[in-house]
Amino acid sequence: MKSIINIRSTAIAVAFMGLFVSGCKKDFLNENPVTTLTTDVYYKTEAGFEDLVRACYPLLRNIHQSRQLVLNGTDIFTPGGYGDPKFSTAPANAGSLNQYDVGLNASLDDFRSLWTLLYAELGRVNTAIGRADDITTMAEALKNTRVSEAKFLRALTLFYLVQQWGDVPMPLKETQSASKEATRVPSADVYKQIIADLLDAESKLPVVASNYGRITKGTVQFLLSRVYLTRGWNFKGVLGGSNADFTLALQYADKIIDAYPLAAKYKDLFPTRSKNPLTQYTGTQNDKNAEIVFAVQYNPDVLTNKTDAAFAPDAAGGNNLHSVFGGGGEGFPGTKGRTTDYNRSQPIYPLGPSIYRMYDPAMDSRYDHNFLEVGYALLAVTGFKPLPLVNPNLKIDIKVGDTVVYFRPWNKPATTPDERGVDMGGTRKYSVVNGDEWGGGYNIVNGVGVSGFPSGEPNMWKFWQPGIAYGDAYGTFNEAIFRSAEAYLIAAEAIVKGATGGKLGGAEVYYNKILDRALGTNSGTDPKCAKFPENIKSLEAVSYRATASNITIDLILDERARELLGEYNRWFDLKRTGKLIERVMKYNPWAAKSNSIKDIHYLRPIPQSEIDLSFPAMTQNLGY
After folding, report:
1. Distance (Å, rounded) from C-alpha 276 to C-alpha 365?
2. Which of 31, 257, 543, 554 has most Cβ atoms within 10 angstroms of its Cβ?
3. Are the C-beta atoms of 604 and 100 separated by less than 8 Å?
4. Where are the beta strands (DSSP E) in 343-458?
5. 88-95: long-range pairs with CB below 8 Å, 24+
6. Residues 6+ apart with CB under 8 A from 137
7. What is the pTM of this model?
8. Measured between alpha carbons, how far is 333 from 335 in angstroms, rounded to an integer?
9. What is the pLDDT of residue 388?
10. What does DSSP assign to residue 211?
């Protein structure tokens, strides 16, 4: 199989690129010419083995930038245009991952791409684990630490694979020649291997790594909490799980909560910036926070900020989280065009109509941080035509710094002329867009937008970083994969499922710790979200504070959506809890329109290219 063949030459080449260097000691960056050495000779040296383990880290960038199978087609990420009468059917960019139509099949390249990345990573870590016995000059404790790092990465890789595809091939030794054999291993056995690797790594890894960014004991304990939680749900009875797994998930979540204190404010976890580019923050970004258990590392050096050269999804390199969500400032009147002021925002993972309505816009600080509600003119515009199609004689002048668009909170729509923009018959010289008009669905005549102002929806800029090069990536901020806020929600979920012995008390206590951090000075009050987030016309609200009597899996999933928006977990959350079909049909309008999602979609199809390469041919997942 192509995706699990020997990758030693790629691994050693990458090792010298110094890809994972943010915050690391200088010796983590050393580059030594080894062109006269073979991998077999070099890997037997201490320096060679260190480079081999380093080479297991860079692919984490590529894997976590391949978010299509984790974000798209869920309850909170859907194509744009959901409120637009131009789209009586799904727009062309809706895509099969969102609609679950016949195009979601074994030939879809998204499946092949992630599969290939994960098996490439599995090949690298197996090489590191298998070569360890050849190292005789390395201190045993250090060697155990490095092997444990590789075992954690093997466990993480297998965990991603088994959640997406169920029974999967599970090579555990270095593959030194091409092979067509690819036997699928039962999911329960994959989970046993994941847990065995993690328990072994937990016993040998230090609490604090020798270089910032390396895997630690806490990293392993966090993944154990996720794994036990997932196995406890025991998808279709095939994971080998039991109710005891929920108690183990709670115990490990408590370990993380003890060791990794929450940041004082939600916004402290993400890049520092101003909502107005004219007064943008220009200081040094600090992406090292005590709440972060593990992060994919980036750094300011353009030469070492790339994704893995063998599998790069983009040419730019660097963190791309700032540029892949919906909204954007490039179309604002008075824009400077393609500059760093608002940077580029590609709607690869557009937000659906429901997620904005899951927050209290006034009380929940995450709403203010996550969404850009006001757009400003960066250049003066004389004689701007707000209604070029219906009233070309109406002109206004826009000064630098003027508001050009304001997205009203979903629960406080503009209802009077004084509150509306001139493009809607109001008096304000900027566009005012109500929550039921987001997605391009306002001021439409015969299917054409007649306003010169932008519409769309608030820019999702949770990860937006100022001062980096304009483009699809280039970000230097580390991407948090595990943070202790999630451990609180894992604990809450485990308790709802029957776990006992939580150090903080009931499930509602863990849940409310995260909520109250988001509420800040409003801690302890009752924030209100839409009672029916899927209905963009409804203003009916309901509290999302947890109590012992109201906490449910759905309440926790809503809080996970608010807290972990855009982080690498949403499809896994819905699959784990058995809520995928229910919530996608309720909150994803394009999936509801196609009405095609069904039970088979809890597993992904094995890529057809892998089946074609295997002999005997791998079996396909049921229904594909």
Report:
1. 17
2. 257
3. no
4. 371-372, 374-376, 381-384, 396-398, 403-407, 431-433, 444-445, 448-449
5. 89/593, 90/590, 90/593, 90/594, 93/347, 94/590
6. 45, 46
7. 0.93
8. 5
9. 87
10. S
